Amino acid sequence: MSAVWCTGAGVTAIGMRAENQDAYLSAGRVQVVADGMGGHVGGAAAAQAVVDAFRPLSGATNATPDHVADAVAQARRAVDEVSYREGGDAGSTLTGAIAVEHDGVPWWMVINVGDSRVYALEGGSLTQITVDHSHVQELVDAGRITPEQALDHPDRNLITRAIGDGMFGFDGWLVRARPGLRLIIASDGLMKVVSDARIGMIASLAGDGSTAAARLVAAAEEAGAPDNVTVVVADTLNAHTPTDASADPWRTWGDRDDDDTTVSGRVKAGV
Ligand code: MG
Q1: SS3 state of residue 186
Q2: What's the gap in Å between 210 CA and the centre of ligand 1?
Q3: Would the N or C end of the chain have less CB density within 10 A of its end CB?
Q4: Residue 139 lies in a domain
């Protein structure tokens, strides 16, 4: 399979911060965003190392979920090297979508570590695919605060997992690559100041992906952009449409660790 069934574009802005510690890669089959951890030595270098770990996949003739898992592992090694070199505690989020082939058909493999996000936009409706690894997400899950309260919570920037935290797990989903499906991949600098409803509206009306990415970043800047803001918009072109109508459009993809190279696909409610 070639990667001709997808296209993407990204934009990043520094916002009110002294340094841009976000990074992205939108090339070929790889559409990823990384947000280096603020206050950590080498945050910008860590984010860049994370996206660079996916660069070999961008032009690969073939890519499978296992290749994606390997790239996540490479990202972890690269961030560990940054920490060692900087003598600090570098870390980064990682989220995005990689065009893969699985069971003979094209899928987007969506991955996440941290609180950057991937949304699916289809038929004008926006769905958040990823689940934040954050303290406020845990409070929301426990029913202790509402999603709205999470936006203003004093611990809203506390993430519970990162590339560079020594843990191996990542969340993964396989999303059927169907024509017209648009993915919006963003660092928290977007979601903290632009509501999901506005993200969906802007991304629906923008036309091509590069315009959508630019308008979303501009919306964050108009709202003050207290943080770095990065948006990648990936569009699904003429992907092969599966004939098996009963196939699940969206599955979770099990965590993988060094000792267990098997991956389990658990069925989840479809988009
Ligand atoms: Mg951020």
Answers
A1: strand
A2: 21
A3: C
A4: yes
How close is the Cα of 50 to the center of ligand 1, in Å? 15
- 129 Cα: distance to centroid of ligand 1 (angstroms): 18
Give dist(CA 133, CA 116) in Å, integer: 9
Tell how far the Cα of 143 is from the centroid of ligand 1, in angstroms.
25
Domain-embedded: residue 214: yes
Q: How far is the CA of 229 from the centre of ligand 1 (A)?
A: 7
CA of 188 to the centre of ligand 1 (A): 5
Segments forming the whole domain that contains residue 56: 6-262
Please give the distance, rounded to the nearest whole angstrom, from the Cα atom of residue 269 to the centre of ligand 1: 29
Q: How far is the CA of 17 from the centre of ligand 1 (A)?
A: 10
Report if residue 244 sits inside a domain. Answer: yes
Q: How far is the CA of 100 from the centre of ligand 1 (A)?
A: 27
Tens place of pLDDT per residue across the chain (271 aa): 455 799 999 999 999 999 999 999 999 999 999 999 856 568 999 999 999 999 999 999 999 999 999 999 999 999 999 988 887 888 999 999 999 988 888 899 999 999 999 999 998 999 999 999 999 999 999 999 999 899 889 888 888 899 998 877 899 999 988 889 999 999 999 999 999 999 999 999 999 999 999 999 999 999 999 999 999 999 999 766 655 544 455 566 554 343 332 232 222 222 2
115 Cα: distance to centroid of ligand 1 (angstroms): 8
Q: How far is the CA of 239 from the centre of ligand 1 (A)?
A: 32
Rounded Cα–Cα distance for residues 170 and 158 (Å): 17
**Cβ-proximal residues to 22 (8 Å cutoff; 6+ apart), any chain:** 12, 33, 34, 35, 36, 47, 187, 189, 228, 229, 230
Domain count, the chain: 1
CATH code of the domain covering residue 66: 3.60.40.10
